[in-house]
């Protein structure tokens, strides 16, 4: 059987149709629509494939416009917006069923020295000191909605360990921050482009959910509607997605049916390797049938 990690790497390895045109398949991870992290990772992979000079991605700014259909491929068109002396910019448009579902701009830079500083990594227990989340009792699992059952029963490519676990089925009200250790569950190759695409995929997990903490709600609940609206990601220093990384997330504001969340990603040595930000839709609706679930958002 193909492992979840191999499936994810294949998912991020797009089919090249033309010089600037790529096609990617989708993977059902238990969500009703295509997982936002998948589109982020695939779009970054497409942009990286059009670079002529060895330049590293340093930022990505994206908007989610329509829900993606899991059953059909996504076509990515890359506009080679600029290749300057030390920076390159690419604009990527994702198309499905003849409509734009997503677009982003990604910027790349040749390596150069400069002044450095960073915020210190929070003092938290290491991943080896945190027990993996226990499986739900069978009787509790059986009472959950089908879509939630599919989400919880999947074997994902990443392992997550929460410093402050929360009961998502009966969520308490608590301050809007969390720390999550994560890593790919298998060792993979050394290509930095692959590890950046993998982090783009993983950066969409747990981010927006942090904005629900003060309200005592969860995307597991049938009357909660959540969806990513935009996503920004900055790469600061080299890293490996198959080694433990700490995702330190907070949510400074929620208003108007939207929540904002920010994340800092550190490696085990305490180096800040990436930062993220996302605003998303968060609604509590009267009719559970009208809610669109995007687990992990």
Average pLDDT confidence is 90
Total number of helices: 5
Helix content: 10-25%
Note the beta-strand portion. Answer: 35-45%
CATH topology: Porin
InterPro entries: Acyl-CoA_hotdog (IPR042171), Acyl_CoA_thio (IPR003703), HotDog_dom_sf (IPR029069), TesB_ACOT8-like_N (IPR049449), TesB_C (IPR025652)
Keywords: Hydrolase
Organism: Cognatiluteimonas sedimenti
Family: Belongs to the C/M/P thioester hydrolase family.
Structure description:
This is Acyl-CoA thioesterase II. Keywords: Hydrolase. It holds the Pfam family 4HBT_3. Belongs to the C/M/P thioester hydrolase family. The protein has helices at about 5-10, 35-50, 140, 145-155, 190-200; strands spanning about 15-20, 20-25, 55-65, 75-85, 85-95, 100-110, 160, 175-185, 225-230, 230-235, 245-255, 260-265, 270-285. Strands 1, 2, 3, 4, 5, 6, 7, 8, 9, 10, 11, 12 and 13 form a 13-stranded antiparallel beta sheet that branches. The chain is of the alpha+beta class and about 300 residues long. About 15% of the residues lie in helices and about 35% in strands. The two termini are about 30 Å apart.
Task: Present the secondary structure layout.
Blueprint: H1 4-12, E1 15-18, E2 21-24, H2 36-48, E3 56-64, E4 74-83, E5 87-96, E6 99-109, H3 138-142, H4 146-153, E7 158-162, E8 177-184, H5 192-202, E9 224-228, E10 230-235, E11 245-255, E12 258-267, E13 272-284
Antiparallel strand pairs: 1-2, 2-4, 3-6, 3-10, 4-5, 5-6, 7-8, 8-11, 9-13, 10-13, 11-12, 12-13
Helix pairs in contact: 2-5
